[in-house]
């Protein structure tokens, strides 16, 4: 007995007809009759009476139908549970890239990733439920989560293909809560040429192409087109929140 045979039986039971069932299931009538015979042999009981106006379930047929429906419902519940067993993660673009390229704590195959702007994460964290939250801001009044503080080693970077000068613009994220932006503005207060960019990846691309300087995670120096602008190491703190008593 298998789930396919049970599904065939349910269709036959509900249509009371091998002919109608064959059209619905796109099986030959002979195949359906054969599968029904297999079920009756395995269960050692007759499931239908053959009447002139169709099939009539026996008492055993009624009981087996209830069993099949319950099994089907339980199977669907199990499928949904397996689908939703992924860990839900709320994270910013930069922290996501940092984890994938450096920490590697996120299993992409077992996670549902929700990437949001740094400024929006504290708001969303209070509105929706997540297993893990990564954020550059400390989230106040977040109940039932353990807080872990981490740091990203960062350097001011420029293109390795050019000689950087102080006249070059400094790229910062448009998000005013971005800690890389705050650190950059403190260091380069004397510069008038500060350019706001709305994407971490766009900032990296501009730096690689020699268009300016930006404070970036140190691991990005592994890229062929990026090198440190100076020797300063900046530790950027971030917060990781994990739901307490996770059963997953």
UniProtKB/TrEMBL annotation:
PROSITE patterns: HTH_LYSR. Keywords: Transcription, Transcription regulation. Gene3D superfamilies: Winged helix-like DNA-binding domain superfamily/Winged helix DNA-binding domain. The keyword Signal does not apply. Residues 1-58 form the HTH lysR-type domain. GO terms for molecular function: DNA-binding transcription factor activity; transcription cis-regulatory region binding. SUPFAM superfamilies: Winged helix' DNA-binding domain. InterPro entries: LysR_HTH_N, WH-like_DNA-bd_sf, WH_DNA-bd_sf. Belongs to the LysR transcriptional regulatory family. This is Putative HTH-type transcriptional regulator YofA.
């Amino acid at each position: 007995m298998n789930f396919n045979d049970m599904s065939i039986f349910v269709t036959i039971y509900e249509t009371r007809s091998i002919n109608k069932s064959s059209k619905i299931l796109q099986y030959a009538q002979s195949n359906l009759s054969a599968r029904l015979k297999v079920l009756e042999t395995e269960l050692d009981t007759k499931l239908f009476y053959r009447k002139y106006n169709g099939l009539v379930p026996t008492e055993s047929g009624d009981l087996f139908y209830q069993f099949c429906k319950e099994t089907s419902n339980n199977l669907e519940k199990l499928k949904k549970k397996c689908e939703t067993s992924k860990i839900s993660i709320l994270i910013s673009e930069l922290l996501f890239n940092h984890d994938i390229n450096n920490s590697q704590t996120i299993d992409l195959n077992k996670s549902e990733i929700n990437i949001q702007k740094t400024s929006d994460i504290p708001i969303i964290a209070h509105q929706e439920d997540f297993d893990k939250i990564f954020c550059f801001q400390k989230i106040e009044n977040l109940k039932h989560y353990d807080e872990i503080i981490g740091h990203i080693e960062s350097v001011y970077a420029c293109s390795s293909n050019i000689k950087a000068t102080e006249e070059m613009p400094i790229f910062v994220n448009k998000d005013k809560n971005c800690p890389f932006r705050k650190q950059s503005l403190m260091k380069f207060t004397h510069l008038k040429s500060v350019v706001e960019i709305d994407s971490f990846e766009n900032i990296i691309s501009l730096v690689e192409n020699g268009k300016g300087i930006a404070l970036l995670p140190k691991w990005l120096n592994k890229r062929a087109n990026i090198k440190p602008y100076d020797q300063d190491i900046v530790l950027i703190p971030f917060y990781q929140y994990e739901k307490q008593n996770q059963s997953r």
